[in-house]
Specification:
With 132 residues, this protein is mainly β. Helices cover 11% and strands 44% of the residues. It contains one helix and ten strands, in the order αββββββββββ. The chain has a four-stranded antiparallel beta sheet, with no helix packed on it. The longest helix is centred in the first third of the chain and has 14 residues, at 2-15.
Length: 132
């Protein structure tokens, strides 16, 4: 069951993967923060894993051993965006899990999910795209 949930989380994350694009204007006068923090909070008591983008824009899978969970990175200049998802099983119906992405200390994406009657939970975030 755990591998099914991890596969589902990977598929959902990759479905929302931000494609690359280029800009002809490399002389942006307004610097954009590349400091990203991923955060999972809630009362979900089952087993959890998360998928998030690393500093190079590659998806990483990590088991979450306790809540709250955070990961802080500085994203490379050529990465266009970030996203995350989390899934779990073995929880109790209606337990919650909230996922957030912070950029420069500000919440830019947030989503909350509730466990279903089988104790399964999946939370996904719409990708955050860095301004050009």
């Amino acid at each position: 069951m755990k591998s099914v949930l991890k596969t589902l989380a990977i598929v959902l994350t990759l479905a929302f993967t931000v494609g690359s694009c280029s800009s002809d204007n490399d002389n942006d006068s307004t610097p954009v923060s590349r400091d990203v923090k991923y955060e999972l909070t809630g009362n979900f008591s089952g087993e959890l894993s998360t998928i998030y983008f690393d500093k190079g824009g590659n998806p990483l899978n990590e088991d979450v051993t306790k809540l709250p969970w955070t990961k802080e990175i500085t994203v490379d200049k050529d990465v266009n965006g970030v996203t995350a998802s989390a899934s779990g099983h073995g929880g109790v119906k209606d337990q919650t899990l909230t996922a957030k992405i912070y950029v420069g200390g500000v919440v830019v994406k947030e989503s909350t999910a509730k466990a279903n009657s089988d104790g399964i939970i999946v939370v996904t975030l719409v990708p955050y795209v860095f301004p050009l």
